[in-house]
């Protein structure tokens, strides 16, 4: 800051105004926080529903417990199938990284995942195989699978990120929640429903077309496709999503 | 009264419009942009929960900044203690860095940013709102819960203090 302007409030005011413009919050962090917020809002909705439904839930739970108990008692071999479709040692193994035990997909796991490994062969703007990460949660003895993949593009620093979040809502509800509200439509972006290999999706495009985002909803998971840097093309997201092997949806 | 779906839609709209401004505001206030993201998320969740009690006397933006400021204050006491310790040790405060930088800051403003983080919190917050975020005196008074005259007088004192600190730093740099 120049000494000649030290006592000039106007100069200082001008300098202060530039602070905001000179701090850049990364767009991919904005998107990530947006997804976290959406998930939290969905949880809140469910929590308040659960709170209201506790008396009915207890009664229903008791009936179900009794039913399962009696069925198992009468036929011990008819245990309920496991919801987990990934087998440890076959589809994934654990590796130690910085004293943490992390699940890592095996080659068989990668090949049988929803993520296409050869997408770059037919989509020219992609480069190489994706990096795929797995997150397993075992809350309450129920295994929940989260995954994230990164597809490098031919533009330096430009990556397509896809992550999944399991859901327990109807596809209809989730599609509606991603489309513009009828009374309060978004002004900063447009969104339209798209068909992705028989699955319903919503393509969201900012007015400045800087960061398109695609959301695909299957019966089990929500898939979020987005670029980690500006100037990605929405058609590539759709093209890539159409190559996904949704029959392997975990 | 808004339905849950309507509240969600409004909150996501507000997020699109104001999340960046909030992250920067909180980050500047507490000098921690990672924590600022958490506080921003909590701000929108609180807005969702309180949507039906919002009286519309101020704009949604002013309301969000009021919530954010109150949440940031829950975090500040501990951070302020660290800040005092830093000052005692005569080390300039560092932009919080973890695995990944939450924000990029151009070199030209780093000096002013660091000086700002050394400023007394009441001065800092009124300067951020009035001079950096460019809220009006009335809006700033709503966000801070102060009278408009307090906003004006604190701003004036804050700017004087900031200038003084800049002069001292320049003097120190010249000596070294």
From TrEMBL, chain A:
Keywords: Membrane, Transmembrane, Transmembrane helix. The chain crosses the membrane at residues 54-74. This is DUF4367 domain-containing protein.
Automatic annotation (TrEMBL), chain B:
GO terms for biological process: DNA-templated transcription initiation; response to stress. Gene3D superfamilies: 1.10.1740.10, Winged helix-like DNA-binding domain superfamily/Winged helix DNA-binding domain. Keywords: DNA-binding, Sigma factor, Transcription, Transcription regulation. Residues 14-81 form the RNA polymerase sigma-70 region domain. Residues 112-162 form the RNA polymerase sigma factor 70 region 4 type domain. InterPro entries: RNA_pol_sigma-70-like, RNA_pol_sigma-70_dom, RNA_pol_sigma70_ECF_CS, RNA_pol_sigma70_r2, RNA_pol_sigma70_r4_t2, RNA_pol_sigma_r2, RNA_pol_sigma_r3/r4-like, WH-like_DNA-bd_sf. The keyword Iron-sulfur does not apply. GO terms for molecular function: DNA binding; sigma factor activity. SUPFAM superfamilies: Sigma2 domain of RNA polymerase sigma factors, Sigma3 and sigma4 domains of RNA polymerase sigma factors. Pfam families: Sigma70_r2, Sigma70_r4_2. Belongs to the sigma-70 factor family. ECF subfamily. This is RNA polymerase sigma factor. It comes from Cytobacillus horneckiae.
């Amino acid at each position: 800051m120049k000494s000649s302007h030290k006592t000039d409030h106007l100069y200082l005011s001008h300098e202060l105004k530039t602070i905001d413009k000179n701090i850049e919050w990364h767009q991919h962090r904005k998107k990530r926080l947006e997804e976290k917020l959406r998930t939290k809002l969905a949880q809140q909705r469910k929590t308040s529903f659960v709170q209201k439904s506790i008396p009915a839930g207890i009664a229903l739970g008791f009936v179900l417990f009794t039913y399962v108990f009696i069925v198992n008692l009468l036929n011990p071999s008819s245990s309920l199938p496991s919801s987990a479709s990934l087998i440890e040692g076959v589809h994934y193994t654990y590796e130690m990284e910085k004293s943490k035990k992390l699940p890592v997909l095996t080659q068989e796991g990668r090949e049988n995942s929803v993520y296409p490994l050869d997408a770059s062969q037919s989509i020219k703007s992609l480069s190489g195989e994706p990096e795929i990460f797995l997150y397993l949660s075992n809350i309450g003895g129920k295994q929940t699978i989260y995954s994230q993949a990164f597809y490098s593009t031919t533009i330096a620093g430009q990556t397509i990120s896809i992550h999944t979040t399991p859901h327990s809502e109807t596809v209809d509800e989730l599609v509606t929640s991603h489309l513009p509200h009828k009374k309060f439509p978004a002004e900063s972006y447009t969104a339209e429903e798209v068909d992705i290999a028989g699955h319903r999706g919503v393509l969201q495009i900012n007015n400045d077309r800087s960061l398109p985002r695609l959301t695909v909803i299957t019966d089990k998971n929500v898939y979020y496709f987005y670029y980690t840097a500006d100037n990605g093309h929405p058609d590539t997201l759709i093209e890539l999503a159409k190559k996904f092997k949704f029959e392997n949806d975990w | 009264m808004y339905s849950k779906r309507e509240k969600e839609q409004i909150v996501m709209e507000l997020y699109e419009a104001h999340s960046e401004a909030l992250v920067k505001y909180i980050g500047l206030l507490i000098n921690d942009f990672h924590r600022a993201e958490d506080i921003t998320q909590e701000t929108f969740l609180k807005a969702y929960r309180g949507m039906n009690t919002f009286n519309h006397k101020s704009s949604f933006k002013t309301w969000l900044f009021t919530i954010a400021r109150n949440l940031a204050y829950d975090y500040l006491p501990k951070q302020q203690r660290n800040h005092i310790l830093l000052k005692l040790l005569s080390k300039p405060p560092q932009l919080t860095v973890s695995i990944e930088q939450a924000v990029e800051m151009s070199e030209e403003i780093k000096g002013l940013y660091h000086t700002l983080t050394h400023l007394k919190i009441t001065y800092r917050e009124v300067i951020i709102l009035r001079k950096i975020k460019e809220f009006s005196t009335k809006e700033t008074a709503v966000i801070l819960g102060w009278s408009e005259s307090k906003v004006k007088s604190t701003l004036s004192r804050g700017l004087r203090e900031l200038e003084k600190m800049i002069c001292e730093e320049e003097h120190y740099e010249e000596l070294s």
